[in-house]
C-alpha cells in the first residue's frame, strides 16, 4: 500500500501533547501550522485537511484519538496496526475511535477534512474514577466510520474554541472535555453494563449541592470574576471532584458552572457600566477576554451592547442629578 505521499515527513502533533500521534499523524509539509493540536480543558483538538495520499500514524501511547469527518463522502483505504487493509467510504459525521497504543495507515482518495480530539489516557481514567467506575478495568474500544450524534455535537462545540483561541475560557473548555470523556466511557469503552449505568445515572436523582457547598462555590465566583476560574478550583470549594461538582451544581442552580459564571460576569459588568466605568476596564474587571467578548454576552443576555448600557447609565445619573437640583 505505497501511496504518492507515503514518504511525507512526519511531524508531531502540536499543543501540550506534542509527543503523541494518532490517525493521520503524518501531516504533509503543506499542511498549515494552524491545524496542529491545541490543548483545551484536558484534551487536545485540531481541525485538519488532508490531500489524497497515504498517512502513517505510529502507535499513540499517551492518548485515545477520536476523529469526526467534516466534509462529503471520501473513499479510501484503512489498515490498523494489526490487521488487513480494507476499503471504506467516510461520510460526513462519521466517527473513528483509535485507542491508545494502536496505530494505522489511512489513504483517502480525495481531500479529507476532520476534527480530531486526543483524550489523554490518564485524564480518561481520572474521570472514570470520579464517576465511580474502576479505571483498571477500562479499555477504549476501536470504532471505524461509526455514527454517534452526541459525540458529533460535543466535538463540534470545540470548533469555535479553535477558531477564537479559546475565547470561551478555561471553565468552558474543561466542561466540554469532561463531557466528552464521560461520553467516551459510556459508549466506546469496555466498562461493564453496571458501571456504565452508574456513569449515566450519576448522583442520586433530585440531589444537589448542600447549601454550604453551593454558597462556598458561588462566593468564590463572586470574589474571583476577573480571574480564569477553572472547574477544578470551583469543585475544590465544595470538596468534590470536577465530574460530580458539575452535575450537582447544575441540579442546584439549573445551569452549568460555565453558564453561571458568564451570567455573573454580565451582571457585574452591567453594574459597573451603569456606574460609568469605561467598557475596556469593565471587560478586564469581570474577566472577559476583550470588549468584543463582553459585547457578545451583554447583547445575548441583556439585549444591549456595553456602549448602550454605559450611555443609559450616564443618562440615569444625569437625570438623577437634575431631579436633585430641582428639588433644592
Automatic annotation (TrEMBL):
Instruction: Please list the residue ranges that the record marks as compositionally biased, kind Low complexity.
Output: 11-26
Region of interest (Disordered), residue spans: 1-31
Gene3D superfamilies recorded = Homeodomain-like
Residue ranges of domain HTH araC/xylS-type in the record = 215-312
Entry keyword set: DNA-binding, Transcription, Transcription regulation
Q: Where are the transmembrane segments?
A: none
Q: Which InterPro entries does the entry link to?
A: AraC_XylS_family_regulators (IPR050204), Homeodomain-like_sf (IPR009057), HTH_AraC (IPR018060)
- The keyword DNA-binding is assigned to this record: yes
**What is an example of a Pfam family matching this protein?**
HTH_18
Instruction: Select a single GO molecular function from the record's annotations and give it.
Output: DNA-binding transcription factor activity
The protein's name is Transcriptional regulator, AraC family
The organism of origin for this protein: uncultured Rubrobacteraceae bacterium
Amino acid at each position: 500500500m505505497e501511496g504518492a505521499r507515503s514518504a511525507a515527513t512526519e511531524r508531531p502533533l502540536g499543543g501540550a501533547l506534542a509527543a503523541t500521534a494518532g490517525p493521520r499523524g503524518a501531516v504533509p509539509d503543506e499542511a498549515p501550522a494552524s491545524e496542529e493540536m491545541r490543548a483545551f480543558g484536558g484534551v487536545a483538538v485540531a481541525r485538519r485537511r488532508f490531500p489524497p495520499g497515504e498517512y502513517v500514524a505510529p502507535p499513540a501511547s499517551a492518548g485515545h484519538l477520536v476523529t469526526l469527518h467534516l466534509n462529503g463522502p471520501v473513499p479510501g483505504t484503512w489498515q490498523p496496526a494489526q490487521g488487513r487493509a480494507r476499503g471504506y467510504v467516510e461520510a460526513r459525521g462519521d466517527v473513528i475511535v483509535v485507542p491508545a497504543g494502536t496505530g494505522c495507515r489511512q489513504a483517502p482518495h480525495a481531500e479529507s477534512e476532520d476534527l480530531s480530539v486526543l483524550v489523554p489516557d490518564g485524564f480518561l481514567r481520572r474521570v472514570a474514577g470520579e464517576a465511580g467506575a474502576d479505571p483498571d478495568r477500562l479499555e477504549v474500544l476501536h470504532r471505524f466510520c461509526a455514527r454517534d450524534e452526541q459525540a458529533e455535537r460535543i466535538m463540534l462545540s470545540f470548533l469555535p474554541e479553535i477558531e477564537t483561541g479559546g475565547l470561551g475560557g478555561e471553565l468552558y473548555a474543561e466542561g466540554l472535555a469532561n463531557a466528552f470523556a464521560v461520553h467516551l466511557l459510556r459508549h466506546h469503552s469496555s466498562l461493564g453494563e453496571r458501571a456504565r449505568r452508574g456513569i449515566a445515572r450519576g448522583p442520586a436523582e433530585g440531589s444537589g449541592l448542600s447549601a454550604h457547598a453551593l454558597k462556598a462555590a458561588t462566593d468564590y465566583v463572586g470574589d474571583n470574576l476577573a480571574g480564569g476560574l477553572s472547574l477544578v478550583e470551583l469543585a475544590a470549594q465544595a470538596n468534590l471532584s470536577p465530574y460530580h461538582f458539575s452535575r450537582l451544581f447544575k441540579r442546584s442552580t439549573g445551569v452549568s458552572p460555565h453558564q453561571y459564571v458568564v451570567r455573573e460576569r454580565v451582571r457585574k459588568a452591567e453594574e459597573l457600566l451603569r456606574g460609568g466605568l469605561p467598557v475596556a476596564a469593565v471587560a478586564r474587571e469581570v474577566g472577559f477576554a476583550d470588549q468584543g467578548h463582553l459585547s457578545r454576552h451583554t447583547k445575548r443576555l441583556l439585549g444591549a451592547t456595553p456602549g448602550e448600557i454605559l450611555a443609559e447609565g450616564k443618562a440615569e445619573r444625569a437625570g438623577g442629578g437634575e431631579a436633585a437640583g430641582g428639588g433644592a
